[in-house]
Design a protein that fits this description.
There is one protein chain. The chain has one domain. Strands 1-2 form a two-stranded antiparallel sheet. Helix 3 packs parallel to helix 6, helix 3 runs antiparallel to helix 7 and helix 5 crosses helix 6. The protein is built from nine helices and two strands, in the order ααααββααααα. It is 72% helix and 4% strand. The chain is globular and about 70 Å long.
Length: 268
């Protein structure tokens, strides 16, 4: 058991904690985007409740996984090997095998689910709705509250495994991991409603968020197959896309203000 007083007096422990909190918050963005999009399909009076339950389940799942660190570490051990029909070695056998751990299989399954879900949402939101070519920003209401929670729970599992394995790789002190997870999930809890409302009120942001989910799903699948895409590249691309969309929104607001002024600044 780590000595908490000793950790509190250790600058390296504080540095690890801050770094891990930032990492956990960044990793939580993916989870939060999915929860926001899915909860926005529910009746308005159920949305905040679904977000709170979804994020609370994420916290419970992460803390539960932290309590079984010995088991979590074994998730990275290969459990399935598939021969790759590439160049043969001197014995006439494939030169290497594709090996999958439980972590890889979970990431592949979660990535496929994200790609399917994002593609379905994009189809629903771009399908003709009212016959006037207006983008459908709401989509059909989720079948019921329970189905939304189940879908959130499935993705919570995928993101929780990735989050905890990241934490294990950054520090060996359990109190630091627990503190970082609690702080990160608390940030998610406070950010959930504002982010969900912002996404719901801006149709182009909805499509951008769904595009993010497609990219995240593809990255999870690639990671499961052993192709590791640096997370920094992913979040840099997301930040750049968000900046471009923010500029587009500012330009649209300026255009609307000019139109609302009756063209007073238009030369005669």
């Amino acid at each position: 058991m780590d000595s908490i007083p000793a950790l509190l007096s250790d600058p390296a422990a504080w540095a690890a904690l801050i770094t891990l909190i930032v990492m956990e918050v960044v990793l939580g963005i993916d989870n939060l985007i999915f929860i926001s999009i899915l909860s926005n399909k529910l009746p308005e009076h159920q949305r905040s409740k679904a977000r709170r339950i979804g994020i609370s389940l994420a916290l419970i799942m992460r803390l539960g996984l932290l309590s079984t660190l010995a088991f979590i570490v074994t998730l990275t051990q290969p459990v399935l090997s598939l021969p790759w029909q590439g160049p043969l070695n001197a014995h006439g056998e494939p030169s290497f095998e594709l090996q999958f751990s439980w972590r890889d299989l979970i990431l592949i399954a979660g990535g496929l689910f994200l790609v399917w879900k994002a593609t379905t949402e994009i189809h629903e939101k771009t399908a003709p709705g009212d016959g006037h070519g207006v983008l459908d920003t709401t989509g059909p209401v989720a079948r019921n509250f329970a189905s939304a929670i189940v879908q959130i729970l499935l993705l919570d599992l995928v993101f929780s495994v990735d989050s905890i394995l990241t934490a294990v790789g950054m520090t060996e002190h359990l109190p630091i991991m627990v503190t970082a997870v609690v702080v990160a999930v608390t940030v998610m809890l406070f950010a959930a409603d504002p982010l969900a409302n912002f996404i719901n009120n801006n149709p182009t942001v909805v499509m951008l968020a769904l595009g993010f989910l497609l990219m995240i799903g593809a990255v999870l699948i690639a990671d499961g197959f052993g192709v590791h895409v640096p997370k920094g590249y992913i979040y840099a691309a997301m930040a750049f896309s968000g900046l471009v969309e923010a500029l587009n929104m500012a330009a649209r607001r300026a255009s609307n203000r000019r139109a609302g002024s009756g063209g007073s600044d238009t030369p005669h």
